[in-house]
Amino acid sequence: MTKKRFELCPADELPPGDRRIETLDGFSVGVFNVDGEYYAMKNDCPHQRAPLCEGKLTGTNRSDTAGEYNWERDGQIVTCPWHGWEFDVTTGESVFNPHRVKAKTFEATVETSEEDTGYSATSTNGSVSDSKADMVSDGGSCDGCGHHIEGSEPPVETYDVEVEQGTVVVYV
Ligand code: FES
Hints:
2 domains; six-stranded antiparallel beta sheet; three-stranded antiparallel beta sheet; about 0% helix
């Protein structure tokens, strides 16, 4: 089935540690920024359908040896607000039974686009210059327009015209 693409927001509006909850294609979806990576999860707990993505973001303890605990996955575990089941927002897997109890996840990413700022390169006398052929190498007059040119500067001013903007995009 073809996924639908939704542009959520500029990436800088969803900084690390933040989340947004939006309705996308009829689903309530939570989108999380975990250490600069974006993850989307259905806002629907598999236990009794609580708004899972509204829960507290935390980490979890892991123990490989009796009496020793290590805090890990800080900021990527969401705790269901109703009964406290915990899920990893990066995978949707529950902490207590990761292979059998999972929340639904969606693809989330940041896509960049180049936008034209409206600037263009023009000659110093205001007319559009289209060619390298009009340049002279060490001063004198421009072959095309006769305009005097100092030194080796080309008869055009140039501007940076590319702006990269990151947008958080979710595929549902
Ligand atoms: S509804 Fe989420 S733990 Fe019960």
